[in-house]
């Protein structure tokens, strides 16, 4: 069975952690064997804690010469059998895009955590949410990705552990689209005695890049197992032979890479509902902004307004059924974002109600008060 | 020289190189060295970047191979080696791949002294993309992006990696079979970062653009460019862009 229940490495119970601490402890809990990264605010603390924690648990840590080297070395480590992770922020995330596309094409499990800051370019080291579209469309070629949007330190822990399992289950890079605010936030994290992990499927001799079904995920052998692997991110057949001028091979491969994510949206994409039973207006929010949205909803409820929150725990693949269904029974969706309008475009593709943007990109978080104002302008 | 190198070729693969390409000779020397050493090929990993040089291991060698992004073979190899230290990890790639786009990774891997071997197929240009200038192109040589001749001094790659901390560096022509095989054997045998530069003529791109009208002329050109370490006045100064010194340059 690919699912395995193991004891948590940390003492079960309550821990007081920053988001950065929780990211590291999640990697340890998920039995991550390799980490490479390059310092950048606001994720440097992750590197610094890993530099201490990984040697304690026998995992490899290295500060690379840049983010390109970081992500590439993670792919090498992944193929050598380790669960691998890198952590960065906007500028580094941009540098990693070609590596992420390599991991998608060679189907290498990998976790990439982006502690988003306000871009473009060096911009600010303060909070931002402008990389969420990049997590879907940043690489050339445009393949579906998996990206999570944690809203709390607890979710930095649970969500990052889940990211490792999703990466192994679907043999793909999984992005954890955190934000500077969550990285630096300190909260109580509840650590369970045990953790469920999806472990790499092994089936010696089977083709590592082909499956029986058009949405299949092949088993993944590793280096040193005698499989004489041919791993390439050029167009390849089921055994890894380059077929760079063959339209059929390219179609078959990319269709499966597409389907293995898009035909499993219901297993991957998660949402959370708050006060939606009788809502007429709903925030559709993600990440740190969803915390403010929930605070705004609770305040508005106290004054009798029927407002709720649909929280996108997963950004990609986009939970479009849940958003579409909700839009049929409410009047207005408000989409608050720490960017100049990104996920609202995807919401607009499926929403059959009025849509209202609420955008702010200045290095500060969106406060509940401003969301309350926006909601009142709708309800009034 | 052992005749057994062919048993390490991946079945069903037609070698992808042009007639007379030096990369084909390098492949043979590499596999001969591995055969001579009696290596367990299933515990070896070959990592390469993008370019004709990247095709030397992938798909030609019947072992674990990892074909990477252009310029990034070294960090992919570093990650694999650190995750599974039992793997004898050998990077084989082009000069453009390793020294231009990937130059920073190369010097940092040498500096950190990872236990990997990097073999650079130096054909003094970008063969795959049709013959453009490289950081290894001799001064005066013509390429599609230096139509009036290259004016920049080339890298001395062996000196570069040695300065960065490589345990071992060697440079030979692909026509110096026994020397190159010996250098590859020593490089793989060394614990720590080792580097072998194989000067490998590219008759199709570099040759044509420099009016070297046949394979023979392409080989004669690189032979005229190189000088043995012993014959070279000390200290060797290849950075004048004219001479490449062959030999072994172990870090004393
Ligand atoms: C990021 C990126 N930039 C450019 C290219 C195009 N490209 C492919 S091979 C190559 C040069 C290869 O030269 P070298 O490494 O010397 O190998 P050779 O073909 O000469 O053996 C370039 C520029 C690419 N594949 N990826
Ligand atoms: S283009 Fe040059 S380097 Fe590439 S295969 Fe042909 S001869 Fe060899
Ligand atoms: Mg070259």
Structure description:
The complex is a heterodimer of chains A (380) and B (252). By secondary structure, chain A is of the alpha/beta class. Chain A folds into two domains: 3-198, Thiamin diphosphate (ThDP)-binding fold, Pyr/PP domains (Rossmann fold, 3-Layer(aba) Sandwich); 270-379, 3-Layer(aba) Sandwich (Rossmann fold), CATH 3.40.50.920. Chain A contains 14 helices and 17 strands. Chain A has helices at 19-29, 44-57, 67-79, 90-95, 97-106, 134-137, 153-170, 180-184, 247-262, 265-268, 288-302, 320-329, 343-350, 368-379, and strands spanning 3-7, 13-18, 34-37, 60-63, 84-88, 110-116, 146-148, 173-179, 186-191, 194-198, 230-232, 271-274, 281-285, 307-312, 314-316, 332-337, 354-359. The termini of chain A are far apart. Chain B is α/β, with parallel strands linked by helices. Chain B has one domain: Rossmann fold (3-Layer(aba) Sandwich). Chain B is built from eight helices and eight strands; from the N terminus they run αββαβααβαβαβααββ. Chain B has helices spanning 22-37, 73-83, 95-101, 103-112, 157-164, 177-189, 203-209, 215-225, and strands at 44-48, 64-67, 88-94, 117-122, 168-173, 194-199, 226-228, 244-248. In chain B, strand 5, helix 6 (177-189) and strand 6 (194-199) form a beta-alpha-beta unit. Chain A binds chain B through residues 33-34, 36, 60, 62, 64-66, 68-70, 72-82, 84, 98-99, 102, 222-234, 240-242, and chain B through 10, 42-43, 45, 47, 58-59, 62-69, 72, 74-84, 86-87, 104-105, 108. Strand 11 (230-232) of chain A pairs parallel with strand 2 (64-67) of chain B, so a sheet runs across the interface. The structure holds thiamine diphosphate, iron/sulfur cluster and magnesium ion. Magnesium ion (MG) binds next to helix 3 of chain B.
């Amino acid at each position: 069975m690919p699912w395995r229940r193991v004891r948590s490495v940390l003492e079960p119970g309550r821990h007081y952690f920053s988001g950065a601490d929780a990211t590291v402890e999640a990697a340890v809990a998920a039995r991550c064997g390799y980490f490479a990264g390059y310092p950048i605010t606001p994720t440097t603390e992750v590197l610094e804690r890993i530099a201490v924690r990984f040697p304690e648990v026998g995992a490899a840590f290295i500060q690379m010469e840049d983010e390109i080297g970081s992500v590439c070395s993670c792919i090498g480590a992944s193929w050598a059998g380790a669960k691998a992770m890198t952590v960065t922020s906007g500028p580094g995330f941009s540098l990693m895009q070609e590596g992420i596309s390599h991991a998608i094409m060679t189907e290498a499990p990998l976790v990439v955590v982006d502690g988003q800051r306000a871009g473009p370019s060096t911009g600010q080291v303060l909070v931002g949410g402008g990389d969420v579209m990049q997590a879907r469309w940043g690489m050339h070629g445009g393949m579906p990705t998996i990206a999570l949007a944690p809203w709390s330190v607890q979710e930095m822990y649970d969500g990052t552990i889940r990211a490792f399992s999703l990466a192994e289950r679907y043999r793909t890079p999984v992005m954890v689209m955190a934000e500077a605010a969550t990285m630096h936030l300190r909260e109580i994290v509840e650590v369970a005695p045990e953790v469920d992990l999806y472990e790499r499927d092994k089936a010696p001799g089977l083709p590592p890049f082909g499956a029986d079904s058009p949405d299949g995920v092949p088993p993944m052998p590793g280096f040193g197992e005698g499989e004489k692997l041919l791993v390439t991110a050029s167009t390849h057949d089921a055994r890894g032979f380059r077929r760079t001028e063959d339209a059929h091979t390219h179609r078959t491969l990319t269709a499966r890479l597409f389907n293995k994510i898009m035909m499993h949206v219901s297993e991957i994409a998660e949402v959370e509902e708050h006060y939606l039973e009788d809502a007429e207006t709903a925030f559709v929010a993600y990440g740190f902004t969803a915390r403010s949205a929930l605070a705004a909803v609770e305040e508005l409820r106290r004054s009798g307004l029927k407002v709720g929150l649909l929280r996108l725990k997963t950004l990609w693949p986009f939970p479009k059924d849940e958003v579409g269904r909700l839009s049929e029974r409410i009047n207005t969706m408000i989409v608050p974002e720490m960017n100049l309008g990104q996920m609202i475009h995807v919401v607009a593709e499926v929403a059959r109600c009025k849509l209202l943007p609420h955008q702010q990109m200045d290095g500060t978080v969106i406060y509940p008060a401003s969301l309350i104002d926006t909601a009142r302008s709708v309800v009034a | 020289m052992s005749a057994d190198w062919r048993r390490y070729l991946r079945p069903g693969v037609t070698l992808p190189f042009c007639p007379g390409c030096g990369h084909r000779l390098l492949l043979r020397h590499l596999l001969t060295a591995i055969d001579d050493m009696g290596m367990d090929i299933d515990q070896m990993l070959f990592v390469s970047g993008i370019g004709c040089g990247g095709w030397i291991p992938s798909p030609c060698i019947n072992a674990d191979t990892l074909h990477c992004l252009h310029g990034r073979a070294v960090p992919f190899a570093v990650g694999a080696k650190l995750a599974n230290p039992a793997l004898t990890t050998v990077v084989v790639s082009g000069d453009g791949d390793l020294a231009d786009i990937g130059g920073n990774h190369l010097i940092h891997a040498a500096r950190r002294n990872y236990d990997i071997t990097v073999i650079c197929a130096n054909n003094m240009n970008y063969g795959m993309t049709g013959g453009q200038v490289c950081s290894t192109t001799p001064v005066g040589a013509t390429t599609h992006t230096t139509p009036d001749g290259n004016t920049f001094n080339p890298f001395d790659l062996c000196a570069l990696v040695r300065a960065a901390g490589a345990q071992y560096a060697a440079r030979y022509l692909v026509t110096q079979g026994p020397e190159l095989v010996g250098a590859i054997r020593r490089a793989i045998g060394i614990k720590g970062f080792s580097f072998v530069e194989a000067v490998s003529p590219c008759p199709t791109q570099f040759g044509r653009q420099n009016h070297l009208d046949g394979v023979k002329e392409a080989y004669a050109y690189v032979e005229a460019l190189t000088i043995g370490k012993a014959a070279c006045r000390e200290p060797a100064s290849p950075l004048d862009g004219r001479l490449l010194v062959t030999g072994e340059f172990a870090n004393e």
